[in-house]
Amino acid sequence: MRSPDPQLDQALIEAAVTELVQVGYARLTTAAVARRAGASTASLYRRWPSKHALVAEAATRLAEQALHPADTGSLTGDLTSLLQQKHAAVAGETGIALVSLVGQSAHDPELARTLHEAVFGLTRTHIATILDRAAARDELADGLDRDVFADLVIGAVLAPLVDRWSTDRDAADNPASLTTAAGTSGTDPSTSTGALAAARMLALAATR
Questions:
Q1: pLDDT-derived band at 193, boundaries 50, 70, 90
Q2: Longest Cα–Cα distance in the chain
Q3: DSSP labels for 84-130?
Q4: Structure confidence at residue 19 (pLDDT)
Q5: Residue 118 φ/ψ, nearest 5 degrees
């Protein structure tokens, strides 16, 4: 039986993310991922039976890069922490890879389910924790629809990605072109006042 090799697993995941950045999901091949990782295609398929399974694992790893939001003592503070951490997590190559996956998911129901579970599901768990804290502090408005509120927060998380995508007309055909925009924007999402402004607006909608 093959011994586990976490280093090779990680190398293959990193290679998959790089391929997503360079060519997008539709053009990604398992052969190219294996070659970039310095591994055989057979070793890749022993770990993941398909391209979709590999990308699903990569998406899960990307989503897990975001830390659990801090307990700051207020709904506004918790939402600010969440948005800053999520924006930092999707900056650079991580964000480009996720943009590629989100775009492809519109045409791939199986990939859409994977993203919903791995990326959006984790974010919804974080939001639920934040709302539970706010409820314990008696901050929440009566009758708040938590599902709708979670949708609004996820929209705020994705907004920087959508903005980067829409400002580059070539991005649909060349995801790597977003790298230039990300590197020259001069904005650090993890410290941007935009996260605080968005958090304040969201908190206003949810509180008494």
A1: low
A2: 59
A3: HHHHHHTSHHHHHHHHHHHHHHTT-HHHHHHHIIIIIHHHHHHHHHH
A4: 92
A5: -80, -40
- CA angle, residues 92, 188, 126, in degrees to nearest 5: 75
Look up residue 201 and give its two tokens. Answer: 């607006």
pTM exceeding 0.70: no
For 76-122, how does the pLDDT look when each residue is reduced to its tens digit (9 = 90+)? Answer: 999 988 888 877 777 767 777 777 787 788 888 888 888 887 778 88
Q: How far apart are CA 59 and CA 64, in angstroms?
A: 9
Using an 8 Å Cβ cutoff, are 39 and 162 in contact? no
Handedness of CA 114, 116, 120, 126 (dihedral sign): negative
Query: Crossing angle, helix 92-105 and helix 146-166, to 10 degrees?
Result: 110
Q: How far apart are CA 154 and CA 126, in angstroms?
A: 11
Contacts of 48 by beta carbon, 8 Å cutoff, 6+ apart: 54, 57
Q: How far apart are CA 104 and CA 147, in angstroms?
A: 24
Q: Per-residue pLDDT for 191 more than 50?
A: no
Q: In sequence order, which residues have a C-beta less than 8 Å from that of residue 195 and are 6 or more positions away?
A: 80, 83, 84, 87, 189
All structural domains of the chain, each given as residue ranges with its CATH number in brackets, are 6-49 (1.10.10.60), 62-176+186-206 (1.10.357.10)
Question: Which DSSP helix (H) or strand (E) runs through 83?
Answer: helix 75-89
DSSP 170-191: TTTT-TTHHHHHHHHS---TTT
